[in-house]
Amino acid sequence: MKKVLVWGTGFIANRVFQQCQTLDQYEIIGAVDSDKEKWGGLFYGMTIVSPDSLPEIETDVIAILTDKYDEIKHQIECLCPDVMPAIENKNFFYKESILHRYRNNNDPEIRKILEHIKNNGLDVFNYSFTAKYKARKNQIWKDDANGLYFVLHNGKKMYFPRKFKSEKEVNDYYNAISMEQDERSPHRYLSGEYCIKEGDVVLDVGVAEGNFALDVIDKASHVYLLEAEEGWMEALRYTFKDYIDKVTFIHGYVGSYNEGKNITLDAVITAPVNFIKMDIEGNEWDALRGATELINKSNDLKMAICSYHSDFDKELIESFMDKNRISHTYNQGYIWFPETVRQTYVSTSLNRAVIKGIKNK
Question: Whole-number mean pLDDT of the chain?
C-alpha cells in the first residue's frame, strides 16, 4: 500500500476526499498546507503540518491537491530536493484509478494514453501535442472603448467577457480552446467530411468565446449563436459586429422544454440548417430531444455533438441518432473529464469527446 502525503487542504483536496472512492487503497499519512493559520488544525482526522516538516516525513507520494502545482513543486524542491520524484499533481488518485481500471485493456488508443499518463500524470487531454499550448504565450489586447480583452484568432478579433480580469486568464483560456481544436485533438469539431460548405446554415449551440463560429463565418450563409451565459453574449456582440447581417444571437438554456430562459431548438429555429455544433456542459442529449422537428426538416445535415461531460452521454446521444436515422461515428481518441456535471462523482473513465452525425434525407 503506497504511503501518500497530501499537500493542500482547500477546495480541491476536500473534493478529492469527498468524492474519490479509492482512498482506502492508500495509506494517507498526513496533510501539509502553506497557510500557517491552518497548522495544528485537522483535515479528515489528520493534523495539518507546515511545509518545514517535510524533511522528517517518509512517504512514497506527495500529492499536490491544489491549482498551484508549479509554485508548490518549486517550494518542495527548495525544502527537500530528494523527494522530487515522489511529487504528483492534483489528479493523482484518479490517475491511479484509471491505470487500474484499464490495466487489461488492449485498445491501442487506450494503451498509448495509459503510457502517457504514467510518464506525465493525468490531465483532461493525455497527448504529447498538448505541450506546445501549455507553454504558448499569446498577444493579448484590451479594447479601450469597451474594456474587454481580445485576441486575434486567425486574424479576427475575439473578445472575452468582463469576468476575465488579467492577460494570464485570457492566455490560459485561449490556449485551452486552441488545444481542443488542434487537428490531433479528440475534441475537434471539424474534420474530413464533417466540414462547413459554402453557403451552409450553421447552428452553434454553446458558443462561449465563439472560436468555432468565427472559423466558419466566412463560408456560412448564416450562423445562429446560442449561449446561456450573459457575459459571453456581450463579448460575442463585439466579436461578430462585422458580421451582423450573417448572425442571429439567441440567449437561453437549450433543452427539451420552453419555459422562462429554457428554450428548445424547435422553438427558436424555424428553417432547416446544415450543421449543428453542440457543447453545452452535459445537456446535449436533452437539447437534441428538443430539436427533433428541426432535425427532421433538415435534409442535408451534419452534426458535431460533445459526448464527454458524463460517462453515459455517448450512449444516450448515439441512441438518439439511431432512433432518428442519423448515421454516426466519433472522433478518435479519448479525454478524461473530471467535473461532476450530471453525475455525483468524479469520473475515472476515458470517454469519446465528440459524436459526429450525418443525415442526408
Answer: 95
